[in-house]
Fold this protein.
Amino acid sequence: MMTRFNQLPTLKIDPTKKVIFNYKGKTYSGVEGDTIASALYANGVRIYARSLKYHRPRGLYSLDGECSNTMMEVDGIPNVRTENTLLKQGMTVKEQNVKGSAEKDMLGFLDKLDWAMPAGFYYKMMHKPARIWPIAMKQIRKTAGLGEISPDFEMPGKFDEIFPRTDVVVIGGGPAGMTAALAAAEKGLRVIIMESRPWLGGFFDYRTAEYKDGVALYQRGQDLAQQVEANENIRVLKHTAMVGAYSNCLVTGFQTGTDKDAFNERYVEIRANSVIVATGCIERPLIFDNNERPGVMQVGCALRMARNYGILPGENGIFSVGHDLGLEAAIDLFDMGMKIGCVADVREDGQDPELVLALAKRNILLLKGWVATEAHGKKQVNKVSMSSIDGMITRDFDCDVLVASAGLTPVTGPLTMAQIKLRHDDFTGFFVADEMPENTFSAGRILGINNALSIECSGTLAGIKAAKACGACDAAEVEAAEAAMKALPGPVRGSKLVTAPVKGRKSFICFDEDTTIKSVKQTIDSGFDVPELVKRYSSAGLGPGQSGIPGHNLPLYVAKYQALAGVPVKPTTVRAPIVPTFIATYAGTNHTMHKRTPIHNLQVADKGILRKIGVWERVRYFSEDYSCKKEIENVRNNVGMLDGSTLGKFRLHGPDALKALQRIYVSDMSKLKPGRVKYSAMCNDDGCVIDDGVVVMLGENDYYITTSTGRAGQTVEWFRYHTRYDGWDFSMVNITDSMGVINLSGPNARKVFEKITDEDVSNEAFPYSGFKEMLFKDVIPAKVMRLGFVGELSYEFHVASSYMTSLWQLLKEAGAEFGIQNFGVEAQNVLRMEKCHIILGQESEQRTNLLDVGLGFLWDRKKADAKTVGAVALRQAENDPSRFKLVGFKMENNGRAPRDGALVVDSKVRGYIATARDSFSLNEAVGMALVESELAKVGTRLEIYEDECGDERIYGKVVPMPFYDPDGTRMKS
Amino acid sequence: MFSKQKPMWGEKTQLKSSYDAVIIGGGLHGLATAYYLAKEHGITDVAIIEKNYIGFGGAGRNTAIVRANQRTQYNVPLYNEALKLWPILTKELDYNLMFNNCGNLNLMHSEAAMKAARMTIATAQFHGVESHLIDAKEAKELVPALNISEDITFPIHGAMFHPPGGIVRHDAVVWGLARGANKYGVEIHQQTEATGIKTQNGKVTAVETSRGTINTKQVLISAGGYSAALIYGMLGIKLPISVLTIQAMVTQPLKPLLNHVVSSGAYHCYANQTLKGEVATGAHMDQWPNYTTQNTAHYIKHQAEALSEFLPCLRGVKFMRIWGGLADMTPDMAPIMDGNDHVEGFYMDCGWGYFGFKSCSAVGKYMAQFMAEKECPEILKPFNYRRYEKHQLMGETAALVNYTPDN
């Protein structure tokens, strides 16, 4: 293991604390603060992985996870970006996508076969003859993909989620982000600052160059960080990658927890009044032959390895850069002990004279207008060829590290994701936003500025603008900040170079997908002329690095290659999550959110078997016998009770309430009488039944209505929508959750009822379809309806949810001597089916209208003034012979019931079985089916086709409905 | 293939002043129709007018899933034919469409869903399309990553297994059809916007574009999510179509994990692994009509929650990219294919919702026949748009749809 600097003031590691981990089965040690990749580097590892297509060796390149070069499997989790994943005690680290090892990969020969794999080659081969494709496909699948995950992998760790609301969110904790946060906080605003690294400081953090008055940049960075952390108005979210930006100032990200946190990672969704994007820059990769050979790394990577992690990345360095930061890094690394053979700068001029002087002082050769053209060395760089930009003069230099960077590129992802249009600016070479939405501001290097004071000032300006957007300061303050900004140096000229003078067969524009300059040329030649299409055909930017490497170079290169005058350089699309995010993290706490009825616990205590039905959790069965024989028989013979609380319940009142009812329900609601229940249905404009339920009149202009469970959520909106132009005066309240319902059904129902009330509930006093408001035990107010959905004497009690427990227990006690039992939704389903009472969605489908299901009798066609929803379509449908009809049927020869969903056929499909059961009550199989109208006549033989029946058919016969108690004596007496 | 690459669908050409037929929309349906017009009917003087670039819309944003387990007898044969065309097209176009015939597994999470599945399966089997109802354990054998325990929000009761389905590389279909059509002489004009259709005496006479007027007697609008607006804007025909944004996403690439397409109605989620190894997943639509194709924070989170439950090993996998496309939804989830009705020479092929990809091959074939013979082929007749005037919905979906408050 190499010696590490342990005294640097910029270190992020604690060299005294060892961290032991396992790499490829052997024990290694790193130190606290190390990333996995930095620890491996310190242990001499240079080849971290092999590339996707050509299995080329890949090494540490950017330190910020912009490509898949350092992705490994860590503790069973694939594709972990080891360069920015903190090392933890006991971690198990493995290489991925290699046959053998990354060092010696048996698939390494593929690199020589690149000629056989031009862009889009897979579209042109392996399909002739057709039989080889399935075999080839298997191989492709095995070869493709990077990491591997076991189907029974269980993700360890705790995942949380927070949804903070704030005035200002600042994306990026560098100098601009920090000054922006401080400026906004100063105005009394709440600020959240998100920083993807585990510390604040940005690109000040590892630089020893002078900030001002003898203070080094890193010291200034630390000072700002302290101010930010100490500010009570600022919530600092470190180690929090921003992943999504949406309109209306919604920003998402995820935070990686420390040992002290109660979470490993947590999803963060911030709704702000204002957003400041201070994401700074990354380096634009330099494109030359073998530009991704291990040992080639970016400027920030080389410098941060030394400054943050105490590791000198090599002994003999060569630099090929396009920005002053490269010169500065060369000087600093030289001072730390790296020998530097030469610094090539693609810029002919424009370098900071002080840096040039400093290089000269150290006798470092500076080649202006030069660039690396090829990295040599089979697995690791050992020599580099340099040439003048025009390719005329060349020189070779030995080295063990090549620091390469074409220039800078702004991190504009947060802007483009928020739908902000970018333009390519020729001076800076950046994609810039000319117009920003209200409340969104950018600051710092993203603007093309480079001077430390300008950067800070731009942050302050953005902070003040955000404060103004939040109403916390006035225009004068913004003007003052703008003036201060103007007095400082503005944007600097960026390097124009796109590629070194190379043919590009081994010059990689995208590392993850092994896309070379040559393959991009082939792609464009094939007719794919827009960057977005080039991306699709050549795969550039579609890998796990998510365009970090090709994001800027690809559009530049496409424009350059086509050399079409006047065609603007267009950025490719950036898509969330801009940092790859665990599904576990996005899922967060993942609470189940189903509604429970007021007597949920009582039902569970009575051994109810629950099902999630729509938004509810309901009891479907009360025993393991899913045919529900006992439950059904008890309702038919004694008395049962059902928790019907999920029914939609509404109160509708106001002078125009009746008009609304007339519009929505098909029946004539003016015929409603106090003390009576009216059953009716609602249709949509196609005449299709969308809901049914009952309406009762509570008083003058005051109605109580019920809807089906599934429809409750949409009912208020439905009324509002269909009365939106009328200006009617009525109100509607959804009281579904505040009321509970118990259905008491069976021949003994009245006996039970009588035990809990002194009122007369005889058939004469409380007949079928009657309604009463009652008070039980002097305290429980109830709305009681006499109904008969299950075909028996039946009462429905509607009481406030808070009384549900008491009423339930009351009925249970009262019913004990009459054999009262619970029944669930499935028993109800069979009971009502025997009675041919329909359930919408079961005996109807989307296209079924009111007439089809035999509910035409509900429709009052005389109320034309009401403009009843669906009436027009119903009139039309009346004479339409092509519609389905709901029929009842029994099975021939006392056969078993067909399965729900079986088809009614002849040579074509003629209908299907809605519900069918072997009925315990009738001792035969019965059901309802939706069939073409020619088959609807009583006596018609139905040929039934079930799944997996082969040539076998079973037969039924259309019979009159209902099957059970046809004249309704049980229900009505 | 190793020589210098040539433009796959020809060099850029000047727009002519007239064509035998003009197709508005360079998506899969337009390309397929053009291909068959030229190949089967000898109508080669065809221009495809594409505002953006071919495959910009739904063609490049879809699930890539193909299957023929639709609900009604009108749809099953059409999709079944489309399914059978993939290997044929691969050969005809001499372009690898990468049909991965892995089969589809549609999870069922309740007794009601099992009933619905049984009807779909019976319909498939009745039409000779393979499809089976299997129980949760069998599903787990097919997809070992499934969580079939009871303790998830929607426990898995069983599944509809449809072996003939799978995944096709959607981009390949776009490029292969474009190349194939171009070989027969079809011209593809990208970056060209159709701005109007001229008619005279109830007949189509010309198409106006951003690059000039084209005289033609036949025009097809098959512009995916943009069709309804174009048809209304150009001819005043109002279609019952709601356009919604639908999103999809992929994870980072993995070695083979899912060997079948898995989907779940209750979780609003499908997942399949592409040949590159990414798990592609999606399904949810915005609940409000819009043309934005914008992503939402809510949705990617929802998707993670769903996958966490029924494919829990994916919790250790990372999402890499989310995108949005448009779904043009009709009230009955079945498309509108019609022509020569209001206006002679005008054809439309739209309202595909999120079924446009899986149907494109067969539809191209029959729309081409329709345009060539000027008579609607029997198989397309049920998809006429007058069915909505008669309030006769097609029943492709069992449950009510709610795209707009009036539905």
Notes: The first strand of chain B starts at residue 21 and ends at 24. The CA atoms of residues 36 and 205 of chain B lie 23 Å apart. Chain B has a mean pLDDT of 94.
